[in-house]
Design a protein that fits this description.
Glutaredoxin, 4 domains, isomerase, 6-stranded mixed β-sheet, 5-stranded mixed β-sheet, alpha/beta
């Protein structure tokens, strides 16, 4: 789900020796040495292989293992953060340790734990080898440490009396407290489950009657205390339904956010972690007091859409400058408004910007009701776009070429920054040369970061689509090998490869072998949208 251009993806037994003494050859070894189960380290991270893996599990109650590939760019970027997290956990005498396995060399371990992409992190608890827990935290040192700390100790602090609760509630800007009459109840256990996963907020739990009374409660309730907006949000536990961990997690993610979030390096994880389906954006230059004042009307409109639409302010002269090309904007366009549907990256724009809370509220509701058409970006076509062997398509010329009923059109959707696209560029150009004189075959490409199509959503780069001649606006996604000969077989066979097995990319850093479109959230080099 996509906001901005950001760089994306990159992640023998010893020979027998001998020496000659007095005319005789003395063998140093007659048999291979038995591999050691010693636990070695690199930068404070345990280095594991199939011969010491069991020992590591037996000696460390909590062991987070990174399965990596030496060539993986994401793994290389993670390495310093992983080492830093290992050092921080060691310095605080945590029982948690970090380890790594080269999954390309230790294939037995990779197969045992079904490693299909890199990096993959799994937590092994209490020596249990058969049911490791998938890592769900952030891929940075702070996120790793918090995630491990939450699993090393109690996930929620017990608040035994009203004074302890008051101190806890006032200790940070944002805290969560579960009030349960019985801490052994199923609802309380669900709360602990949520506390294990939502590691960037402190959790407390209380069952004492005086604590219930101090906060005006009489039944099981989860309370989110915050030092902004409304100050407190209550989530009563339904006696019949109980506590749904997934539902509570989403409610906390939504209500922990301010009504209007400013997009910054510090807030981007929260903005995208909330998984709110629409984002309403106010682009302003914060150095202008007049533009900054527009935030008041923007905020007044936000309350009606909490949980459905996230309102975000973007400083065009600050951290938000890099997202402007994604919206086809420049700093001079501020102030302006855009709404993004995160599922398919469609963008919506007012016919004429109006910044009152009433106008904003009306516009947002119209988009939600399906009454507004998306605004599609399109670059201008190059003058020679249709004379090159590979035709250069843009948004405004796509339909006339791709859906020409007399042509079979093979289109590469790419991103200029995508390393996988760059790797196959020469093959695509060669394909264009091979078919440039074929009347019924067109080889084309479209920069999907500068052009948008109403009915086609690109979810990875490169994406290859074949549009066969004839009526019906048909489309076939190509998923096989990316070489000229296989492309040619596909074209000569009318858009199919019936005898070809599914292609497996040799060096992808995600399971698709493609680079994901670069949303704001991939500013942190995330592999997933």
């Amino acid at each position: 789900l996509v906001w901005v251009l950001v760089l994306s993806l990159a992640w023998l037994a010893p020979a027998l020796g001998g020496e000659e003494e007095d005319g005789e050859v003395v063998a140093e070894e007659e048999e291979d040495e038995v591999p050691s189960d010693e636990l070695g380290e690199e930068d404070g991270v345990l280095v594991l292989h199939e011969h010491n893996f069991a020992r590591a599990l037996s000696e460390h109650r909590l062991l987070l293992v990174e399965f990596y590939a030496p060539w993986c760019g994401h793994c290389q970027r993670l390495a310093p953060a992983f080492a830093q997290a290992a050092a921080e956990l060691r310095d605080e005498s945590s029982p948690a340790r970090l380890a790594k396995v080269d999954a390309t060399a230790q294939t037995a371990l990779a197969n045992e734990f079904a490693i299909t992409s890199y990096p993959t992190l799994k937590l092994f608890r209490d020596g249990n080898r058969t049911h490791p827990l998938a890592y769900t935290g952030r891929m940075d040192a702070k996120g790793i440490v918090r995630w491990m700390q939450r699993r090393a100790g109690p996930s929620a602090t017990l608040l035994q009396d009203a004074a302890t609760a008051a101190t806890f509630v006032g200790s940070q800007d944002l805290v969560v407290v579960g009030f349960f009459k019985d801490l052994q109840s199923e609802a309380a256990q669900g709360f602990y489950e949520v506390a294990n996963e939502v590691v960037d907020m402190p959790f407390g739990v209380a069952e004492a009657a005086e604590v219930f009374e101090a906060y005006g409660l009489s039944a099981d309730t989860v309370c989110l205390f915050k030092k902004f907006d409304e100050g407190r949000t209550d989530f009563p536990v339904d006696p019949a339904r109980g506590l749904d961990a997934a539902e509570l997690t989403q409610l906390l993610r939504v209500h922990r956010l301010e009504l209007v979030m400013e997009f910054t390096n510090e807030t981007s994880d929260q903005i995208f972690g909330a998984k709110i389906p629409h984002h309403m954006l106010l682009f302003v230059n914060k150095s202008s007091s007049a533009q900054l004042a527009l935030r008041d009307g923007f905020r007044a409109a936000a309350g009606s859409f909490r949980g459905k639409v996230l309102f975000v302010m973007v400083d065009v002269a600050g951290y938000g400058a890099d997202v402007l090309p994604f919206f086809g904007l420049t700093p001079a366009d501020a102030p302006t408004l855009r709404l993004v549907k995160m599922e398919n990256n469609c963008k919506y724009q007012m016919e004429q910007d109006a910044f009152s809370d009433t106008a904003i509220r009306t516009f947002v509701q119209a988009v939600l009701d399906g009454k507004v058409k998306p605004r599609l970006l399109s670059a201008e076509p190059p003058e020679d776009w249709d004379t090159r062997p590979v035709k250069v398509l843009v948004g405004k010329t796509f339909d006339q070429v791709a859906y020409d009923e007399t042509k079979n059109v093979f289109v590469k959707f790419y991103a200029p920054w995508c390393s996988h696209c760059q790797a196959m560029a020469a093959a695509w150009e060669e394909l264009g040369e091979r078919y440039k004189d074929h009347e019924d075959i067109v080889i084309a490409e479209l920069d999907a970061t500068a052009n948008e199509l109403e009915n086609i959503t690109i979810k990875g780069f490169p994406t290859l689509h074949y549009f066969p001649a004839g009526p019906g606006r048909k489309m076939v996604e190509y998923k096989s090998n990316r070489d000229v000969e296989t492309f040619s077989k596909f074209l000569e066979n009318g858009g199919t490869l019936p005898e070809e097995p599914p292609a497996v990319s040799k060096t992808p850093e995600n399971s698709t072998g493609r680079e994901k479109p670069s949303p704001l959230e991939t500013a942190e080099s995330r592999d997933e949208l």
